Amino acid sequence: MSNYIYLKxxxxxKEVKTRHKIKAExxxxxxxxxxxxxxxxPLEALKNPKGMIYFNLMGTDGLINSTDRRRSDVWLQCSAGxxxxxYTLDLKTxxxxxYGNPADDKFFKPKRLNAKDGTIKQVERPNPFYEYNKDGFLxxxxxxxSELEIIIVPNGRYIIQSIGKEYADGKMDDVLTALRQAAQxxxxx
Length: 189
Known about the structure:
The protein has 189 residues and is mostly beta strands. The protein is 13% helix and 34% strand.
């Protein structure tokens, strides 16, 4: 097997969300990490107090100040900030295939917090992915984004599009099968 890291994320059923006190009718789709193969240190910073890791699937239109050619289709927000934009590849597959990479800023944009005295305080948040900004992310999603697989390719930022094309050509089938079989839950829903 490769040195890839694999994450399976899913939109959880309403009854599972209710059982774990997750907002069931959120307007923004939430994708919980239900299985992982391999270890990726920055993910530790994303775990909530229960041990869950999840992403919010965000649209970019009107939010990202960029031309349509350079704007991603969607992006994943995590508890720390922007996990990655997802740029879709125009490939003939039954799934949506996209790519991205970690933000390469040392700090995420400052977060505004209201202090107890009513003042607003800017809090600088370190980017847990900063030292990993040469990594590449391959995204494989069902057309409705109810499931999203993330394959993290260490030092793959500049080759991740070609890896997406290899996936579409069936050249990654064995690797993906091995990653899926090795994946273990990180939280028992």
